[in-house]
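Final report, closing paragraph on structural work. Over the funding period we assembled a curated collection of sequence-structure pairs, and we close with a single example.
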Amino acid sequence: MNGTSQDMTQQQAVPVAPGVRDVAAPMLSVQGLTTHLDLRRGLVRAVDGVDLHVHEGETLGVVGESGSGKSMTILSILRLLPRGAQLGGKVLLDGTDLLQLPENAMSREYRGRKIAMISQDPLTSLNPVFTVGDQVGAPLHYHGRADSREARRRQVVQVLESVRIPSPQTRLDDYPHQFSGGMRQRVVTGMAIASAPRLLVADEPTSALDVTIQVQIMALFRKIQAQTGVGIILITHDLGVAASICHRVAVMYAGRIVETGDVRTLYKRPAHPYTQALLKSIPHFGEKRERLYAIPGSPPSLIDPPHGCRFAARCPHRKPLCDDAYPPEIELESGHKVSCWLASAG
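Its predicted structure, as stored:
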C-alpha cells in the first residue's frame, strides 16, 4: 500500500457514496466464473469459481494483491482473452448470458456499448496520432449514436463538458500529448460513458495519478453514477480508494473471492485473515513504526494451487484442516460472506 491509501483513508474513514437504487435483481450476476489458460508450463487457473453481482447505481470494489485475478476476472466478463482460453460459468447482464453470445453480438451490442472499460494507463489507451475529439467520437460512430460528423462533434463537446474538460469546443481538436495525466484520464472516462453503458469497469484508474487528482477522478465517478445510475466495478489494490467510493468490496486472492461485504462492515469487522492483513498493511497517520507491516510469503502458483485454503501458507491462524479442504462460503451477517475455516468453526 502507498501513501495514497493513508491520506484517503484518514480523510474518509467512513465512505460517502451515492445511494443504491432499490432494484430486486442485480444488473450483473457472475456465477461460478472460471478462466483457465493452457500454457507450456501447465494449465493456469487464473479465475477459479468467482461469484459476484452489481446492482444498478452501485459500485463494487474488487481488491487484492497484484496477480490475484482481479483484472483477469474483468477481461473474462468482457471476453477479451487470448485465443484458447477456457471460460466457464455464467455472466448474466440483465438476464443475458454473455458467455453464450456470438462474438459479433458481443462486439456490436455489449462491449463498449453496454459494458465500457477504463484501463489503467490513459496514455496507452489513447492513440497519439488522432485528436481527442476523434477518439471520443469513435464509440458514438461505431455504435450508431451519431450519424453525421456535425452531430458527432456536438455530442463529443457534451461528453467532454460532462467530464469537466475546460473549453471543450477547442480542446477536442487537441492531441493526447497536449493534456495532463488527470485530463487524459477524464478523456478516457468520457470515451467510456459516451455510449451510455449499463456497466462501467475501471481497472486501477487512479494508480498513475497523484492523490489530489485521484480525489477528483473519484468525485467524477460519483457524479456520473448519480446522474446515470450506471453500475461500476472498481479494480484496485488501494483500500483507501475503495473506501472513498465503493458500496461493497470483494477481496480476491489467488483466483478466488475470499470475502465480500458492504464497505463499512468489511473495514470495521474483517473476517478473513487475508483481509485483516491487507488492512493492517495500510500506514496510519501519526502512528510511528520501525517497519511497515508486510504480509509474509507469496501467493501460490495458479498452475498447481493447494487443495485447501490458498492463503493457508501465509496465514498466522493456520491449522491442519486448512490444508485439507477449501473452506465453504458462509454468511456472517446480511451480505457479509467469507470463506475461512476460522469463521466456520465460530
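Residues 122-196 form one domain. The first strand starts at residue 28 and ends at 39. We thank the funder for supporting this effort.
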